[in-house]
## 1
Amino acid sequence: MGTWAAAPTAVPADKIQTLGDQTVRQVVHVSVGGDLPQVTLSNEYGAEPVRVGAARIGVRAGSGASTATIPGSDRPLTFNGATATVLAPGQALVSDPADLVVTAGADLVISLYLPERTRTGTVSPRAMQQHLVVAGDATGRSDPGPGRTITRYLWLTGVSIRAVRNTSAIVALGDSITTGVRTTGNANHRWPDLLAARLRAEGLSRGVLNVGLSGNRLLFGYEDPTGSADEKASIGAAAVRRFDRDVLTHPGVGYVITLIGVNDLANPPARGAAEMIAGHRELIARSRAAGLRVIGGTLLPFGGSSRRYDTPANRRTRDQLNAWIRGGGEYDAVIDFDAVMRDPRNPRRLNPRYDCGDGLHPNDEGTAALGTAVPLNLFAG
């Protein structure tokens, strides 16, 4: 059962990092609990093999930017029984189950030791969480000591657990609003995290997997590998192209929530409402074919944001798309994020309470409103 996820992208030339004889300690905030966790590593966009000399998983000690683990909690991660592995270019690999009990809502630290010179070819670029790069093999240390901070996930795309019967997962497919950009870092204020907390409080055993990508679009994206990637490669593949990988490959998925399309309006090539609706219909068809319940989210208002977004043509297209999402009857259910987030006195703008200041992204209070807007009865069956 999926309990945490991140969507991978290639790395533009000026963002490539090189590691060697170093350990990357990465923090993940799980949604649902269980035991026997497995970790998915991906070198999908890498042009070179990645040698992992050792890997471990443990329960985080502390909060904020801490990558320390509770002494005695960490376990080795193995791959087909081996403590070391090599990720070939384009390969994704799932670890063996680790002998660890994972509490719902806990933070885990996943440590990867890179013994050789290694270029970061596959990342999830906006973690909203600080991680640490430490000299040498620090996988077995409860206190890693000093290191260099990074704010991307490197090669890490999923964590799954063995959960109780009747547990299933919800995938949140979106852009920077889903990623939690402009919220407080190291605080898990992304709206899918807040939805997961509500589900736990109500005793509903549902994983929530956040596969948002900042800048992501419904219909256009970048898929070339690192080394030949576009300078905007961090926006990732188009949602209609990455759907199978970022939604269907995670175990136990029963639902998908879409909140995607605003970046198609603000960037070339220009898209009209008919094209956008066709893209959403493709997401619906893919979900239905996989037996998923698919829930459509209306696009948030963007009045007063940058000129790329806030144009009469873009406002019309958003209104037409939202009208179809609400009234078209093609989604299994609808979450009217627009109605929750708009300013009652000026519906084309975000409510000032929820606006981070750029007219486009919600602040912490705004993402809390998004997480609260999702009716929990959608997942009770």
## 2
Amino acid sequence: MTSPVHTALDLAARGIPVLPLRAGKRPFGNCPTCAGSACGDRPHMKAAGPCQCPRPCHGWAAATTDPAVLTSPDWAPAWREAMAVAYHPGGAGLTVVDLDTADAVTWARRTLPATRTVASTRGEHWIYQGTVRSVNGVRDSVDIKSTMAYARWLGTGTGTTAPLPDAVRALAAKEPSTVLPAPHAITVPAPVGGGECRHRTPVYLERGICMAEQRIADARSAVHTTVYRTFLAVLSAHGGCGCLTDAHVTRLFAAAQAKGESTRHCTDAWTNARTRLGL
């Protein structure tokens, strides 16, 4: 079996920028200099660009085609732990339409022109020549990965790479759905003595939401798990008295989406947290 670093070197020789992935298909964590995406590796950051750090420290921006970097001592520990290889589609002039379910694949076959396809764990990657911005959740179980994103390398696939169609460009031009689950407010008796629920104190509630946003933003790996646990903590503290509003939930979802979570993943995490707490 070819080792991840050898796969990476082969791809780099073909002009495809690559980086190692740890278990869970996650990139290696940010270095202190790049903490919180300070280097600008997030789409909303004006100074976006390739990472200048010696280690593969933050996702797509660390991807490189330089064999000297890939085989440097600084990257050696990451390759020893790597479980897979990822690549930066936009850096190779490509766009990946990530189809996560059989229904999504069926939609693509009916809607998009045929192109090179690669089987994934739950569906398929459809690969086109050309780049657009990356957007998660453009449809149910459909993500677009191109500029400022990474995709797992799953092999060369089958078929011929077609030019990026207008249908995909149109999807990428749209904002992802922001439809949120309605917060489940539960009426509970006021505290003994007739005082107001402490969560209704603006400072107390605002501090809790800010801490939750920061916890998600600081996640370096296991983002899915961090988002779920953060939602669980917020609902544990504030979900039983009707304090949470649509605006609060929107902020939490926005924080998760800034880390790459789709609307579907956010909704699932929120629903699962409510279910666990019996809300």
## 3
Amino acid sequence: MQFAPVLRAEWLKIRTVRPLPGALFALFAATTAFSAIAGVSSTSDPGFDPLFTALSGVVPGQIAALSFGAMAVSAEYHDGALRLSLAAVPRRGRWFAAKATAIAVSTLAVSLPAALAALLVARAGLGGAAGGLTPAEQVRGVVGCAVYLTLMALFAAGLATLLRSGMATLSLLIPFVLVVSFVIGDAAGTVTGFLPDRAGQVVLYETHDGTPGPWSGLAVTALWTAAALAAGARSLRRRDA
């Protein structure tokens, strides 16, 4: 079977498996709503960064992105669905590539307008505090936010394929992005700057000292994602459906 019909089949699954559109809606709603709340909060913090504040909804939004990526894969392990998928597409690599592409395109299609909406509503609340943001910085923030959320969804998809469980994947990733980054991240030194979530979020800051930088941080996240997808693809080829 050619790649295009496989991709259409995977896109149809995303539209019809009930939790998946809900996860995408949650991504949009959480990213926008929490950015709006941050926009009307106090800006007296000495470390206030207007761009990150305007896009801070990415923190809860990434939980929805992780859930979407994990559930899109884990649905295949229910009721023998994976056996049916692989019977229709015996070339496992082609099927997995179509699955990952469908996840990436769906996440990007939702996260890009979500990031733009988050920026607009937060800027309205911040008022003059966001007046110094340049058009280039805002474009970088919106595009970087969308790419980051897409990479996190794919990261979860790769791990879910490796672990063969959405629940196990989310039980690992959600504490990781919440506890490691927000509780011990600052105390653990520069190493945490190269974790997938911390590195990718650098692109959301107006100014940032140290390494990695905005785009190199996204590249670090992309490397983590590529490693997770590669591990998932290897597991898929070696294990029985």
